[in-house]
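Co-fold these.
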Amino acid sequence: MGKDLTQVTTTFYICDGGSCRKAGSDPVMRATRAYLRNQGLWNTTHTIKTRCIGRCEDAPAAIVHPGDYWYKNLNGQNVITVMQRHLEEGKPVEELLVFKEGSTVINSDKERPKKVPKPFSLVEDEDLGVIYSTRGFSTDQYTYPLFLYLAETKSPATLTFPHGQTHSFQNIQALEYGKYQLIMTFKEADLTSILAFTLAGIPKTEPMALQRSRVLVTEFFYEAFNPEKRGIRLKDKMGRLLAIIWLDSTDEKVWNYCLNVQLSMSEVVIQS
Ligand code: FES
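Predicted complex below.
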């Protein structure tokens, strides 16, 4: 039988993401579960291993509910104090909190500056000529939303491959994100084309072709002498061109989406 959630008063979400594991989340989880078991608190509490909760600099990190208490720098000893304080006194351990409901500041000892894309800069590109360009983020937390946006809005944007094959997102029929790959189906003039890009991190044991098609560089650009000519260039790990998504010069919506959502800019910012 699964956990009887009707009995649970307190839940400990312990991060088991890569940074937390490296920093020692296993001893934290083991100590937590052993303590709860031995104190007879197993049925009234719940422990959940999570993937990254977005506070890697505070690893090992955890969240306690109720109360939305976010903890930092846990170890096999201080997590016992955390549990005792919550379960016996209904209070948090303030000095280990990175955040709690109502806080207006993050109380981290190692807060990292937020990563933001660089401003556009003028470059002479050997393939595209004189352009303004900047790199976006290339994890699938950005690339999947980008493709999804283009597909869902049936944007007037064209996917162009190095060998000349082109497909319009206005003709996309389906888009599916599997384990690592994004599979897109285009139907154009009775011809159905199925295309794939690898977006997720992929183990080295997977076929080389799959690894090679991984999008690891995403460049947003516009031509210096023809600013309406804009696009997104996708490259692999070695900097080889995978494809270019050319945006329609009359369509501002996609470009604004790129600036606002993908690049966190409200307008084009140029390196001075
Ligand atoms: S891996 Fe734990 S917060 Fe990121």
